[in-house]
Amino acid sequence: MEKEIVKAAPKADVPQNKTKVVAGINLDALVKKAQISYDKKEAGLSKQISTGSSLIRPDSDSNYVLWSKGDHWQALTHLKGLPFGRIIQISGKPDSGKSTHAAAFMKFAQDQDVLVILWDAEKKFSPKRFNDKIGGNSDNLLLVDTNNIINGARAVAHLVNAAKEMSPNVKILIVWDSVGACVNSTEDKDDSEDFSQQPGVTAKEIAYAVRKFNKLSNKYINRETGEETVSTLIINQTYARIGFGVSGQIEKGGSELYYLSSVIVQLSRKQDLNRVRQGEKFKYGIVTRAKMLKNHLFSGDECIAEMDLVVSADGIHLAKDVKNFDDIKGWDGEEGEE
Questions:
Q1: Cis peptide before 60 (omega within 30 of 0)
Q2: Which residues of 161-185 are buried (b: 16+ CB within 10 A; e: fewer)?
Q3: Is 222 strand, coil or helix?
Q4: Which residues pair with 232 in a beta bridge?
């Protein structure tokens, strides 16, 4: 007797209810009703309202100060560059590649007709290096030259507001280099001797500056298109964690700077790249370790934790892609430094 073969009945298609209804309210209809409350001049702001499933983060080239030479930034952060409307932080010990990243982004911003404001708190900006080695144009760079936190933040805000009055659609990159070089308002006073209060005052004033930049980003969203127009890059120092059983580095500036930074890349120099020429040793670059300390703009399952980079006058490259370090060009022919 042949065994009877019983075919499974085909599964009935489960109807997919694409209409989002909660408590009897159609959520799509609710969003549209709220959006039409905006007038035409503020139509872009209506895009801030959506449902969770329909939220789409802008990802076109125009939404970034693009990193346009090499692919290490996207490999590390999964971003095309510095996003407008966000605060990005690059931190690390001295001579780890922080300011080179900042200078490169300033050059790329100029290439993209983005207005660049550099707050040079370290007072080390070199027009010659920026022009000749980085390829930028120092004549087209706006500079704030102070290490006082409050004065610097206000000066940057005045420049942003003035630029927006002259050209409302201009896109702006703010670069603060660096947090660690700044002093608070009490440190500028001759009679300031209460050192126990200094860390608290500094953290509060840094929080003031960061919030001001965040407010500028919110203030200058294009109200008709919803496009973000202000990007902020903050360069910061790290110091050793102190305490029993505690290791690693921590950024300066307090918790507010950490919380308002969407991305934090922490750099640490691994080795110098040196050449011997005519009996003299010259440094022409470094190998630095880039660690993703925070990335709230990444939506995948796994992101890069860390990778090694080569920093020199040739730019910044993934170390794994450099076949021969001897081929790397130094800052001044063979005599450069990071």
A1: no
A2: eebbeeeeeebbbbbbbbbbbbbbe
A3: coil
A4: 87, 174
Domain boundaries, the chain: 20-56, 59-265
What is the three-class DSSP state of 239?
strand
CB 91 within 8 A of CB 251: yes
pLDDT of residue 106: 98
Average pLDDT over all residues of the chain: 86
Distance CA 314, CA 276 (A): 19
Residue 107, both tokens:
């050059």
CATH number of 59-265: 3.40.50.300
Over residues 30-37, the mean pLDDT reads 90
Euclidean distance between CA atoms 206 and 184, whole angstroms: 8
Q: Where residue 335 falls among pLDDT bands split at 50, 70, 90?
A: very low
User: Confidence class of residue 20 from pLDDT cuts 50, 70 and 90?
Assistant: confident
Contact 174, 156 (CB under 8 A): yes
Residue 111 host element (H or E): helix 98-111
Q: Is the pLDDT of residue 66 over 50?
A: yes
> The tokens of 292 are what?
């993703």
DSSP label at residue 334: T
The full length of the chain comes to: 338
224: Cβ–Cβ under 8 A, 6 or more apart, which residues?
40, 41, 42, 43, 44
Cα 98–chain centre separation = 11
Burial status of residue 124 (CB atoms within 10 A of its CB: 0-12, 13-18, 19 or more): exposed
Mean pLDDT of 207-215: 97
Q: Which residues of 14-40 are buried (b: 16+ CB within 10 A; e: fewer)?
A: eeeeeebeeeeeebeeebeeeeeebee
Cβ atoms within 10 A of the Cβ of 66, count? 20
